[in-house]
Design goal:
The chain has 475 residues and is an alpha/beta fold. The protein has 14 helices and 24 strands. The chain is globular.
Length: 475
């Protein structure tokens, strides 16, 4: 099989450098692979995909799997066939999976012509106004991005876990310690104690556990020299608490699928708690006001990014691509930032209405569309509520159908009991149809109406403002 030079072949060059050294270890199963295993498996899987399943440059392969020791060989094998790959959350329900299969035009499921300007990954983060959009990421987007071992808990289907953790570690020859089963905080502590990794790629809910859990004191965490937090904002207080408790460097990075996925990262030699750092190399960043004018230090506005990692566009969505990506290559991120006199960026809010739950993105519109399918629901709006452990949780404001309202009794206690039963019924109905992080764990609130603009657009900002006022009063 003859293939063009690309990111896949670059990664596989490590075979010549690190032949029998550990590539990945799965603490959930005890399975492990060396870099030679990766190299050989990639070729074998590629041959099977190409000759047994007919995968070629016109194909898109959906990888529907948890973290696994063979996740990266499958990913690279798809690339060797010249095809695209779409990683998918293995917790997705059938309807969620179908949305991704339809959007990615996947022709093959598994439990890249490979040139720099062709697709390698079609990633589906949650959309802000509807179903998820496929972010087309090329080989060139990926190749722009010291040998040390890593503990990686980030799921490989997530852009952070797949590119920054698994793919980058394979590229530079770093061994990975991960787990394929349900996340177990104590197992993570046991693995760090036993295998002594120097670095960890984590998300804020896990870092919060490192700051507060008494279990941490039972284990030897002294090997850790660096923890990188990404996928969601990390509070300065938590960052400092973990730094002081574990006596290691804790720093943040920021990005999005549209940036393949890195936009900023904090340099280890100068860390500012709460900041996501400086724009990465070969990259420009600027803060814009609502009229598109550039702002100076300490002025809040939307962050725009230009660099080699900016996506090719949204697959089959030319208008949505045009809305956020200029002809000169500037990407409007939809996130509110400011930068200080040293060029360090601080995230303050999101223009986009995505809900960030444990590092995963939840689109309010996607949940709203689903909930409207419930027999008792007439209208609905979904917003985020703050949560210390998860960052944010989805909350649904629901207008019931008239017949449900009319069935209420004259007894207030009975009404309350009936209302709680109905909330539980709707919660369970949604739970059966979505991944765990999309569940309505922020609660359900019955309301008489949903605030909307004259054109019918849901004004979630009003609900968020009302919630913020209620929380302020509660304090």
């Amino acid at each position: 099989m003859d293939f063009d030079f690309d990111i896949v072949l670059e990664i596989n060059e490590i075979k010549e450098k690190e032949i029998d050294e550990l590539a990945i270890f799965d603490g959930s199963t005890g399975m492990k692979r060396t870099f030679t295993d990766h190299y050989n498996s990639t070729r074998g899987i590629a041959g099977s995909l190409k000759y047994d399943m007919g995968v070629d440059e016109n194909s898109c392969v959906c990888l529907f799997a948890p973290n696994h020791v063979d996740y990266m060989p499958v990913t690279l094998a798809v690339g060797l066939c010249g095809a695209k790959i779409t990683p998918v959350n293995p917790l997705y329900k059938a309807n969620e999976l179908l949305n991704v299969l339809d959007g990615s035009r996947s022709t093959t499921s598994d439990c890249f012509q490979c040139q720099t300007n062709t697709h390698h990954i079609v990633h589906f983060p949650s959309g802000t106004t509807g179903k998820p959009k496929g972010v087309a990421i090329s080989h060139a987007n990926l190749t722009w991005v010291s040998r040390m071992d890593y503990f990686l808990r980030c799921p490989f289907f997530h852009i952070y876990g797949m590119v920054v953790s698994a793919m980058y570690s394979s590229w530079i020859g770093n061994p990975i310690y991960t787990m394929s089963g349900r996340f177990d905080f104590e197992l993570m502590l046991e693995m760090i104690t036993k295998y002594q990794p120097k670095n960890a790629h984590l998300v804020p809910p896990i870092i919060l556990g490192l700051a507060k859990s008494p279990l941490v004191d039972k284990y030897d965490m002294s090997s850790l020299e660096l923890i990188i937090s990404a996928a969601a904002p990390l509070g300065a207080e938590t960052e400092i608490a973990v730094r002081d408790r574990l006596q290691c460097t804790v720093k943040q990075a920021w990005g999005m699928s549209e940036l393949s996925p890195i936009g900023t990262i904090t340099p280890s030699e100068k860390i500012k708690p709460g900041s996501v750092g400086l724009v990465v190399s070969n990259t420009y960043g600027k803060i814009l006001d609502k009229d598109g004018n550039s702002l100076g230090p300490n002025q809040q506005g939307e962050l725009a990014i230009k660099g080699p990692q900016v996506m090719m566009g949204y697959q089959d969505e030319p208008q949505q691509t045009k809305d956020c990506l200029s002809s000169s290559g500037w990407l409007l991120t939809g996130d509110m930032f400011y930068y200080d006199e040293d060029g360090y960026f601080f995230m303050t809010d999101r223009i986009k209405e995505l809900i960030k739950t444990r590092g995963f993105q939840v689109a309010p519109a996607e949940l709203e569309e689903l909930i409207l399918g419930h027999d008792d629901v007439n209208d609905v709006a979904v917003i985020q509520i703050p949560d210390e452990a998860s960052g944010e949780l989805p909350r649904a404001y629901i207008v019931l159908k008239a017949e449900e309202k009319e069935e209420g009794s004259t007894d207030h206690d009975d009404d309350k009991e009936q209302e709680e039963k109905l909330k539980k019924c709707i919660y369970e109905w949604v739970k059966e149809r979505v991944a765990p992080y999309k569940r309505l764990d922020g609660g359900i609130v019955f309301v008489d109406s949903i605030p909307k603009s004259a054109s019918g657009k849901i004004l979630r900002r009003i609900l968020r403002d009302e919630l913020a006022e209620q929380m302020k009063v509660a304090k």
